[in-house]
Amino acid sequence: MSRQRLHNGQALPAWPMRLLKGAILLVVCALVVLPFLGIVSTSIAPRAQVQAEGGFVLIPESFTLEAYRSVLAGGVVASALRVSVLVTVVGTALSLISSTLLAYGLSRPNLIGQRFLVVFVLVSLLFTPGLIPLYLVVKQAGLLDSIWALILPSMVSGFNVIVLRAFFMNLPSELTDAARIDGASEWQIFTRIVLPLSKAVTAVIGLFYAVSYWNAFFNALLFINDPSKWPLQMVLRMYVVNDGQLGQSDLAVTENLPAQPSIQMAILILAMVPILLVYPFLQRHFTKGVLTGAVKG
Questions:
Q1: Where does residue 167 rank: exposed (0-12), middle (13-18), buried (19+ CB within 10 A)?
Q2: Which residue has the higher pLDDT, 162 or 297?
Q3: Do 77 and 264 contact (CB within 8 A), yes or no?
Q4: H-run or E-run covering 270
Q5: Phi/psi at 6 (5° precision)
Q6: Which of 262, 167, 152, 267 minimizes the C-alpha distance to 213?
Q7: What region, left, alpha or beta, does residue 154 occupy, with left being phi > 0 and alpha being psi -120 to 50 degrees?
Q8: φ, ψ dihedrals at 75, nearest 5°
């Protein structure tokens, strides 16, 4: 009774407030779902309907996969998809290996110069090298127009290292001490004790790295001039964000092309689907991995 507003000494019913909350939630869901539904519908709608409705279809009259066949048949889009998959898989693996090794080393209390190294990692979060020094370093290393230019400059994230270090420091020291008494080396402790206990945080950090590599386009914009080495996000920027036109030579098809909006929406779906498929399998690790790794540090 105390939580309800009174009118003439009588409590107001609760259903109007519930109805209002439901209406607000429905509007928010519609604002999120309808654009995504329009993207999917436009990518599978027939060419005539897309042209008749101005390039955006909410409910397709029929179902066709010609846009997806066109972008996956070959050409710049198929090549970019292969580059993105390669960069994401190789980059995530290298980033996880280097970050976990660095974080484990920084979490050991007997490490010489530990405080200096931790401060060095923290400084990397506050100060970036700048575009010109970064470009010069990549150029001097001979990485221009190389796939490695999309991986090496962003291989280690200071934030992820700090989260991993905090998690490793929270592990019971009795486990590592007992392993040392039994004659285990640091490498055996790391691979057989620490890593199996860190599946949650490594899964979350791995997803962070994978999303970062998959969505990155700025390094490609700076370092890659060859269109055959563009990642998918670069193609997305050139032909969707900048409204470029994809011709038959770009898609390696000889038949009539679907409508340009359908091709653009198909590229957009291909850029979103891999992360949407991976995220549900790692969602259960998110809260445990991030919060446990951020308790201390």
A1: buried
A2: 162
A3: no
A4: helix 260-292
A5: -105, 145
A6: 152
A7: alpha
A8: 85, -160
Instruction: Specify the CATH number for 68-292; select among 1.10.3810.10, 3.30.450.40, 3.40.50.2000, 1.10.3720.10.
Output: 1.10.3720.10
Neighbour count for residue 262 (Cβ, 10 Å): 29
Distance CA 217, CA 230 (A): 9
**Cβ atoms of 75 and 248 closer than 8 Å:** no
Q: What one-character-per-residue DSSP string does 135-182 give?
A: HHHHHHTT-TTSGGGGTGGGS--HHHHHHHHHHHHHS-HHHHHHHHHT
- Quickly tell me which residue has 């490490």 as its tokens: 111
Where do the domains of the chain lie?
6-64, 68-292
- Residue 80 in 3-state DSSP? helix
pTM of the model: 0.80
Number of H helices, E strands in the chain: 14, 2
DSSP designation for 11: E
Collect all residues with Cβ–Cβ distance below 8 Å to 223 and sequence separation of at least 6: 135, 138, 143, 144, 145, 146, 149, 150
Return d(Cα 122, Cα 119) in angstroms, integer.
5
Per-residue pLDDT of 230-263, as tens digits, reads 898 888 887 776 666 666 666 766 567 778 888 8
90 alpha-carbon distance from chain centroid: 14
d(CA 222, CA 138): 10
Look over the chain and give the mean of its residue pLDDT values, rounded to a whole number.
82
Q: Determine the Cα–Cα distance for residues 85 and 91; give it in Å rounded to an integer.
A: 10
